Amino acid sequence: MKYQRLFERGQIGCLETKNRIVMPAMGTNLPGCNGEVNEEIIRYYEERAEGGCGLIITEITRVDDETGIGTPCQLCANHIRYIPGLERLARRIHRYDTRIFLQLHHPGRENRSKFIDGRQIAGPSPIMSSAIGEMPREMTTEEVEGMVKKFIIGANIAKAAGMDGVEIHAAHGYLVGSFLSPQSNIRTDKYGGSFENRFRFLAEIVGGIKASCGKKFPVSVRIDGDEFVPGGFGLEDAVKTAAALEQLGVDVINVSAGTYETVNTIIEPTSYPQGWKKHLAAAVKKAVHIPVIACDVIRKPDFAEQLLEEGIQDFVALGRAQLADPQWGNKARAGKEEEIRPCISCLYCIEDVLNGKIIKCAVNARCGRETELTGLSKDGAGRRVVILGGGPAGMEAARVLAIRGFIPVLFEKQPVLGGSARLAAVPPLKEKITWYLEYLEHEIRTLGAEIHLEREPDLEEIKAMEPYAVFSAVGGTNIIPPLPGIQGENVCTVTDILRKRVTVKEKNVVMVGSGMTGLETAEFLAEQKNKVTVIEMLPNIGPGMYTPNLIDIVTRLKKYGVTLIPSCKLCEVTKAGVKAENMKDHTAVEIPADQIVLSLGVKNDPTFSRVLRENFERVCILGDASKVGRIAQAVQAGYEAASDLR
Ligand SMILES: Cc1cc2nc3c(=O)[nH]c(=O)nc-3n(C[C@H](O)[C@H](O)[C@H](O)COP(=O)(O)O)c2cc1C
Ligand code: SF4
């Protein structure tokens, strides 16, 4: 077998695992709103177990209803009424020889009063997280003692339900982690001050679980290797904490990083490479004899194998990789790496969960919908479906249609597949999008789709093919506002830049529009030694962008010296640059520039769609051609249209 280490059996205390692949905890909002285990959450986990995962750690599970509600719909372990549901979940996972731990959690100061009926959020000390903006009240000593008992009850419920172990969530700035951190814990009672006192809350939880569930009941503790917060819990604290936990009989340490204030180190945006934080797990592993689990932005099997080979960690935790492809383990085991649908680290999954919605994945339309989108009907019977446009929507549709037994005939006017996603992969640090496009292309070629590059068939040609259906996924065209000077030679679009039809080096550039594409293209231009100014008509840079993605790119743009000007509306382009209006005080602004680049979004042309509808019985308009959206919407539209074709 190619990945010997990855598929070696693992040992956590007395528990054996079939391999070294772990699915770390990920909130889903799939359980019932009263914490019930339902078929949705069971199928979601079951698909990952069936897909080859060795150990599943459930999402954050509530132990306290007063101040401890983490997400609107989450698993609960604070009452015996939850035992039967958790038992059903554990039983289904065990059918695949996969182990399951329940993650016990309290959000602490990283909660919002709206989640707890307006009550004030609670933490070790009245120190506000800037990411939350709500002042927590200091928990009383008795309250902390009571909370210890709630975690112990949670573990006992997990054990009674047949779970293989529990994980105490002591990372990410949540309640237990915030007691460990000198930045968020300035208490003067027995739970604050010295390392020993800050550690006491966690130590009492572990001690209580071991005493009541038995020494052999496996306990994992998830800690931060580094909070990356000034004055916070750092690597030295992590090493010391891990060693102390081993002394208490903890069976495995799960090393993560970050708090909500440094959220991009918990769930990394696309710019973070595989393994960037492996030094944290490596340092903890050196300090203990018990096994270490860690997430290290692991996407590819050879990288996972390398981490195990180098002794960085004993188990590889792949969160989003298994959202994107529940079959990650089986495909790696079979040596079919190119069939693994890669996570592109776009953060769409967590954005929706934090907005109180069900988990989703941009590249896997079935994620979170496992019970709804069951098997594809294989009734294509060799009928031809013409697909116009080879971006993610067109390719995903081709993939699903081919699985169903249709013959997809895909036309792409560019010399390569990928559409606008191919352009999105051009700016720096976007290689994961290329991985995804390579996966899609590999899949549709292997499944036998007919692919025609650099071809745009006209109506008569399409008719001549006598297609059963026509899917149009041709993408939109750039919006160019009718302003004076806009047709000048010094004006181009982001598409011109990313397709390299226009090359700009060591010039003054004004980027008009600060959406994701505008900012990423600004970075691309800044890398080419241009002096870039981004103007945005709206009051905030990056309208509609998910804040962690925005923080990530803006941090890099600042390093390049890119100037960002919100509330600045383009009025005219001149030979010398742009004339704009300050939207706050309506004064005129002039910005000198050699090149003006427009990033004002895309629009679709409904004419061609109308023509198709008039000429064919079954027409689906997908991706940007129907509604301008992101990869997630394109993939979802492609999947649904192809699976629903009757
Ligand atoms: C949608 C989502 C929900 C998450 N919820 C949790 C959680 O409930 N508990 C936890 O410890 N970490 C949670 N995390 C963090 C992951 O466990 C993991 O550390 C992170 O995604 C980085 O690893 P990855 O690149 O393999 O996904 C969540 C991550 C995502 C994407
Ligand atoms: S939504 Fe994006 S970040 Fe989340 S698992 Fe899917 S591809 Fe990865």
UniProtKB/TrEMBL annotation:
Q: Which residues form the NADH:flavin oxidoreductase/NADH oxidase N-terminal domain?
A: 6-338
What Pfam families does the record point to? Answer: Oxidored_FMN, Pyr_redox_2
Q: Could you give a GO molecular-function term held by this entry?
A: FMN binding
Domain named FAD/NAD(P)-binding: which ranges?
384-607
Report whether Oxidoreductase shows up as a keyword of the record.
Answer: yes
According to its UniProt record, which cofactors does this protein need? FMN; [4Fe-4S] cluster
Keyword Metal-binding assigned to the entry: answer is: yes
Keywords of the record, alphabetical order, are:
Flavoprotein, FMN, Iron, Iron-sulfur, Metal-binding, Oxidoreductase
Q: Which domain of life is it from?
A: Bacteria
Do you know which PANTHER family this protein is assigned to? Answer: 2,4-DIENOYL-COA REDUCTASE, 2,4-DIENOYL-COA REDUCTASE [(2E)-ENOYL-COA-PRODUCING]
Give the family, as the similarity comment puts it.
In the N-terminal section; belongs to the NADH:flavin oxidoreductase/NADH oxidase family.
Q: What name appears for this protein in its UniProt entry?
A: 2,4-dienoyl-CoA reductase
